[in-house]
């Protein structure tokens, strides 16, 4: 019973902590709430009129929503970039920031589920896909698999984060025999969420652009570039704005690992480009649409080349030790690789996969304003979740916010 | 897959007792209520409607009565929602003569009228591709939007494409909630009350045969075909996927599909693949048959052939 009242106090104190902050905090949360309101208004219109308010149509039946979903699964998976060195090699400086990576994964997963929900034609029937409540087509459908692994990964990360924070809050030592197996389990889980998401596309023989075995490895490689890029920038912000101590060597270690994954990702892109152009089959048409456009329609072309160039530039910056250890060039590299993967895994994956369609029709998709507003609303939910989690977690990690001290300092 | 019983129970997939399932579904109702208010026209019965295979015959009757009532309210005239079962010993097959089709699209519009497709936005279950004789069957040189005063156009031939009712259907495999399945007579159907509108089946179908109700389907009451089937041409709601069913409401009563009847050139042949005397079997045994995207191993029950 004591635990129960402890938990209640923990929850109440956390809420109070969330509601108080400096002006910058209020401005940021206010901005996110505004985006959320715009998204909600756009989504209400979409519910009323149907998905016809998007620019998706029968030939291109998935678009901006599913593109963002795919990219964010990668961000969620990348949390393990920090877990592997921390828990397998017991490399201390990263261990302290692993929890931040896990919170990033939770926020990314919330956005993933949000993007799937807004893409449904019948969101009122979402319960049909809930195991034991609806009727899951398991194991045939990869979407059924994805529902299961994404929710399991969300639950796992949420449990570990909550448990660790609660222990720190009550100033008790956490039980290593509970936490370590769970954290180690999160490594194969992270690989599985991204593999399953890749298989979702990979398994469709009707779409030659996706029906390539390189897709799952490429998903993992690109995720392990873009996810840590966000973290690197975030950790620098945190150590400036909070007393949180994050050592340079931890950041440099992450950057070094990223250089490997970036190189590998570029290699896989090269392998794909070689196969497509050298064999030069009819299926080249999808890649041609991405990089050169078709019939004068070049919607994706500038983005596709920007993705390649940003990826190359970021790799160069991360490969050379001097630019990797310089904060300015390091952060530039982070922004470049993030942009590169966002294009490659989002619109650069979904749209050419569906253009031309299975009967050769060319429908040139670009997102409608409704899609952009709804998407920014979903992003706002994720950023809000992350902000609020950080707001509670940082004082706990610093030992400022505990059961005894309560809210004394914050 | 094709010889699955008509209403297989799904005990292991459903899990839990029916009462617990209903309780959980009831809990979900609270969340769904808000969405329902936004999607006008929703009712609590509709929200809690279970998948077709989970319904007892009595529950199917209740569902049909509800649908008929709703259609009456919407169109002001009565609609019969039938539930004719598959006939044992029949597996439907289709053969289309590429050397005869003139591209008049009468099949397309006969299908729209028969199957109550939305008129605005327009949904067509049959798509006629105009192709160049010089290039042969090549979808990357096909035009579905040809508009001539007279067909056939010089130097072109026509290839109508619709659901191939595959024996190995990728669309059924990928559906996350079993909202679409293959009936024992070979027709792949959609449960419009169970489809969540994720459109994964549309990504999986190699024949562009699945169509989504992007907006509220509009169907003038005067153009409504009141003879419908629960798994076929009954009026559909917004946000779900629909497809050709070989006119399930007709063929299970021994009639030809509307497209077969509408064709002025005898391009379209239809019959029972299990009957050696059927016309479709004659075509398969005596003509040069072409299977569209045969490399994908979808094993269609829809065959193209060259009659001349």
What this model shows, in words?
The complex is a heterodimer of chains A (410) and B (308). Chain A contains 15 helices and no strands. Chain A is an all-alpha fold and 410 residues long. Chain A has one domain (22-397): Up-down Bundle (Formate dehydrogenase/DMSO reductase fold), CATH 1.20.1630.10. The longest helix of chain A has 32 residues, at 248-279. The two termini of chain A are 28 Å apart. By secondary structure, chain B is an alpha+beta fold. Chain B has one domain: Alpha-Beta Plaits. In chain B, the strands form 5 sheets. A 4-stranded mixed β-sheet of chain B has the order 11-2-13-12. Chain B has a 3-stranded antiparallel β-sheet with strand order 4-3-5, with no helix packed on it. The longest helix of chain B has 21 residues, at 18-38. The radius of gyration of chain B is 20 Å and the shape is globular. The two termini of chain B are 35 Å apart. Residues 1-18 of chain B have low confidence and may be disordered. Classes of the chains: A mainly alpha (410), B alpha+beta (308). Chains A and B meet through α2 and α6 of A and α2, α6 and α7 of B.
Sketch the topology of chain A as an H/E string, one letter per element. HHHHHHHHHHHHHHH
The CATH homologous superfamily of chain A corresponds to Formate dehydrogenase/DMSO reductase domain
Q: What's the end-to-end separation of chain B, in Å?
A: 35 Å
Number of folding domains of chain B? 1
Q: Fill in the CATH topology of chain A.
A: Formate dehydrogenase/DMSO reductase fold
Please identify the structural class of chain B as seen in this structure: alpha+beta
Q: What's the shape of chain B?
A: globular
CATH class of chain A: Mainly Alpha
Which CATH architecture of chain A would you pick? Up-down Bundle
Give helix % range of chain B: 25-40%
- Low-pLDDT segments of chain A: none
- Based on secondary structure, the structural category of chain A is mainly alpha
**Main interface pair?**
A-B, 58 and 64 residues
């Amino acid at each position: 019973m004591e635990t129960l009242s402890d938990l209640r106090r923990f929850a109440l104190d956390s809420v109070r902590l969330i509601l108080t902050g400096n002006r910058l905090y209020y401005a940021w949360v206010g901005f996110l709430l505004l985006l959320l309101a715009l998204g909600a208004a756009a989504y209400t219109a979409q519910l009323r009129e149907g998905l016809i308010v998007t620019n998706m149509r029968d030939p291109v039946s998935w678009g901006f929503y599913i593109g963002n979903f795919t990219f964010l699964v990668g961000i969620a998976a990348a949390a393990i970039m920090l877990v592997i060195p921390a828990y397998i090699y017991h490399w201390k400086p990263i261990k302290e920031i692993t929890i931040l990576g896990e919170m990033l994964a939770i926020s990314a997963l919330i956005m993933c589920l949000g993007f799937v929900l807004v893409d449904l034609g019948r969101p009122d029937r979402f319960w049909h896909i809930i195991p034991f409540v609806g009727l899951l087509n398991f194991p045939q459908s990869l979407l059924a698999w994805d529902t299961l692994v994404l929710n399991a990964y969300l639950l796992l990360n949420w449990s570990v984060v909550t448990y660790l924070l609660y222990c720190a809050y009550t100033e008790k030592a956490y039980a290593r025999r509970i936490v370590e197996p769970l954290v180690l389990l999160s490594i194969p889980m992270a690989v599985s969420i991204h593999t399953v998401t890749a298989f979702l596309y990979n398994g469709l023989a009707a779409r030659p652009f996706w029906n390539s075995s390189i897709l799952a490895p490429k998903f993992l490689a690109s995720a392990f570039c873009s996810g840590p890029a966000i973290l690197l920038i975030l950790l620098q912000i945190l150590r400036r704005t909070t007393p949180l101590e994050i050592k340079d060597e931890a950041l440099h270690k992450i950057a070094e690992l990223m250089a490997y994954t970036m190189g590998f990702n570029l290699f896989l892109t090269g392998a794909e480009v070689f196969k497509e152009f050298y064999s030069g089959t009819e299926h080249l048409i999808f890649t041609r649409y991405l990089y050169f456009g078709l019939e004068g329609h070049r919607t994706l072309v500038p983005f596709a080349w920007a993705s390649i160039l940003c990826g190359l530039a970021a790799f160069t910056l991360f490969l050379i030790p001097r630019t990797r250890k310089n904060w300015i060039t390091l952060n530039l590299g982070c922004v470049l690789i993030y942009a590169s993967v966002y294009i490659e895994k989002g619109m650069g994956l979904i749209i050419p996969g569906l253009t031309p369609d299975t009967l050769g029709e060319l429908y040139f998709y670009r997102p409608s304003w409704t899609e952009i507003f709804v998407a920014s609303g979903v992003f706002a939910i994720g950023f809000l979740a992350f902000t609020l989690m950080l707001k509670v977690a940082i004082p706990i990690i610093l030992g400022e916010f505990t059961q005894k001290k309560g809210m004394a300092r914050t | 897959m094709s010889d699955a019983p008509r209403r297989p129970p799904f005990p292991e997939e459903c899990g839990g007792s029916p009462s617990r399932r209903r309780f959980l579904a009831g809990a979900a109702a609270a969340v769904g209520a808000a969405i329902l208010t936004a999607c006008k026209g929703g009712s609590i019965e509709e929200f809690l409607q279970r998948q077709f295979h989970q319904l007892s015959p009595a529950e199917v009757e209740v569902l049909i009565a509800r649908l008929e009532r709703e259609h009456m309210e919407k169109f002001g005239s009565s609609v019969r929602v039938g539930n004719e079962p598959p006939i044992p010993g029949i597996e439907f097959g289709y053969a289309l003569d590429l050397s005869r089709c003139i591209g008049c699209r009468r099949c397309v519009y006969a299908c729209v009228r028969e199957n109550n497709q939305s008129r605005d936005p327009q949904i067509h279950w049959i798509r006629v591709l105009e192709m160049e004789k010089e290039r042969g069957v090549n979808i990357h040189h096909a035009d579905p939007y040809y508009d001539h005063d007279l067909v056939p156009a010089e130097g072109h031939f026509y290839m109508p494409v619709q659901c191939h009712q595959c024996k190995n259907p990728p669309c059924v495999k990928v559906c996350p909630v079993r909202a679409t399945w293959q009936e024992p007579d070979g027709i792949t159907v959609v449960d419009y009350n169970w489809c969540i509108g994720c459109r994964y089946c549309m990504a999986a179908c190699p024949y562009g045969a699945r169509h989504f109700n992007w907006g509220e389907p509009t169907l003038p009451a005067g153009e409504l075909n009141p003879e419908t089937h629960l798994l076929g041409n009954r009026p559909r709601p917004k946000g779900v996927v629909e497809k050709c069913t070989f006119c399930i409401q007709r063929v299970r009563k021994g009639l030809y599909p509307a497209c077969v009847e509408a064709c002025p050139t005898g391009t379209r042949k239809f019959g029972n693949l299990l009957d050696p005397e059927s016309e479709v079997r004659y075509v398969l045994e005596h003509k040069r048959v072409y299977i569209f995207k045969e490399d994908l191993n979808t094993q269609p029950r829809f065959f193209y052939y060259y009659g001349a």
